[in-house]
Amino acid sequence: MYAGSQIRQDQTTSRIPSGGRLILFGRYPVPGHTKTRLIPALGSVGAADVQRRLTLMSLTTALQSGLPASSVQFCYTGGTAYQVKQWLGHSGIGFSRQVGGNLGSRMQNALQAALTQGNQPAVLVGTDIPAMKTEHLKKAFEALNHYDLVLGPSHDGGYWLIGTNRPLNVFQGIPWSRPDVLTLTLAEARRQRLAVAQLDPLNDIDTQADLAAWQPDGDWRNPYLTVVIPALNEAGTIADAIHRLRTPDCEIIVADGGSSDNTAKLACSAGAQVIVASRGRALQQNTAARQGSGRVLLFLHADTALPQDYAHQVFETLMPSGVAAGAFRFKTDLDHWSMRLIEKTVRIRSTLFQLPYGDQALFMSKNIFEQIGGFPLVPIAEDLFLVKRLARLGRIAQARASAVTSARRWRTIGVWRATLINYIIAAGCLLGVGPRHLVPLYRLWLNQK
After folding, report:
1. Backbone phi, psi, residue 403, to 5°
2. What is the spatial distance between Cα 224 and Cα 136, in angstroms, rounded to a whole number?
């Protein structure tokens, strides 16, 4: 027996044996608990999003390797079984929760469970290896026709893959998170007289330096979220709105439509990026969205307040497969039974009919926003037309918490009158009435002459 043989990646005889099991060993992305070493650079949500994207990349590679989906298993920690299946259940793979204390015992238990169930050989890989290709996986399975153990070394001294064709335990006594994990594992394999093959070394993503090596163009520096605020003469609210939003996970862009007050100056002083756009909410929002660098866009009215953990809730709401966009629940700062009743009807409209409005802080990935062409350039109800486009791509989900909108207009023109005007405008748009014909009603809604 011998250890440490290197498998060259230019060998071409690799294949996936039938009956094998590929274990994706990872974590459900939970902001604040995922990729914690990246939080200082990316924020808690940005770090979780890196984990999310890397896991999806690993899953795609696994499903392209030649194994049937039923032979791929996501062995996870973090999150609930329901959350994990909502996220990845559409792929047809299996799921199991990691069991055990330290990393070694959890990997040992995952491999042992697969082998006990008759899945031989069993290969376990991490979910944060962006350079992993299908050929790496094929080589690993092929090696187990001739070797007892296969390892994929990582440049930090550990390994990104381990596989075996029979029950083994080479993890006993290994001190994890040290740069000599691979060396100690190979020493234990030699002690047990195991034949070991090694793949090419790859990088996992744990530190800011790893991110820079993975994306040397600096794309990793982009924030998770861009909050777009279209504004026109909002000097009384804009600074407070921006201060409530500030978090390492987002950038804030105020699209000023030519305010005659100090809106732009106050927004800039509060820490937002300010751009000047031609007047019109749709045009202002589209202009800001093009300049935003976040992976997700959130469109917020200047008189609407989001919950403190809004970035976490955006991330959580967009996680399930099939969700095209999201919105917060509707609420105003008017504590009256009539407004509570209206809030309930809005919840029905938003969930049952998939028609949230702009005062619920619509959010979606920038890719989807660009795919549907942004907000249509109409004088009113641009949010309604956008939502109708989004609904063709998937579900529009609601966040757990509410976005609280100022009831200043309801107070000015009356709750029921304002609501009636709002519904007439929406019904007219849905029935095909040209938005320009509804502008007089909209001006009444704004309390303008």
Report:
1. -95, 125
2. 30
DSSP of 94-111, one letter per residue?
A: EEEE--SSSHHHHHHHHH
Flag whether 77 is in a domain: yes
| Domain end residue (candidates: 194, 214, 234) | 214
Instruction: Please say which residue of 214, 231, 256 terminates a domain.
Output: 214
CATH number of the structural domain spanning residue 171: 3.90.550.10
| Together in a domain, 25 and 68 | yes
Nearest to 151 by CA among 166, 138, 140: 140
CB 98 within 8 A of CB 106: yes
Query: Widest CA span of the chain, in angstroms?
Result: 90
Same-domain check for residues 126 and 237: no
Helix (H) or strand (E) holding 418: helix 415-430
* C-alpha span between 29 and 79 (Å, rounded): 7
324 in any annotated domain? yes
- Tell me, yes or no, whether 447 lies in a domain: no
Residues 163 and 91 in one domain: yes
In sequence order, the β-bridge partners of residue 251 are 226
Q: Domain range for residue 356?
A: 222-407
Residue 151 maps to a domain: yes
Q: What is the pLDDT along the chain (449 residues), one digit of tens a residue?
A: 334 555 444 444 455 666 789 999 999 999 999 999 999 999 999 999 999 999 999 999 999 988 899 999 999 999 999 999 999 999 999 999 999 889 999 999 999 999 988 778 999 999 999 999 999 999 999 999 999 999 999 998 999 999 999 998 898 888 887 889 999 999 999 999 999 999 999 999 999 999 999 998 888 889 999 999 999 999 989 999 999 999 989 999 999 999 999 999 999 999 999 999 999 899 999 999 999 999 999 999 999 999 999 999 999 999 999 999 999 999 998 888 888 888 888 888 888 888 898 889 999 999 999 999 999 988 777 898 899 999 999 999 999 999 999 887 777 777 777 777 777 767 776 776 676 666 665 565 555 43
Whether 208 and 227 map to the same domain: the answer is: no
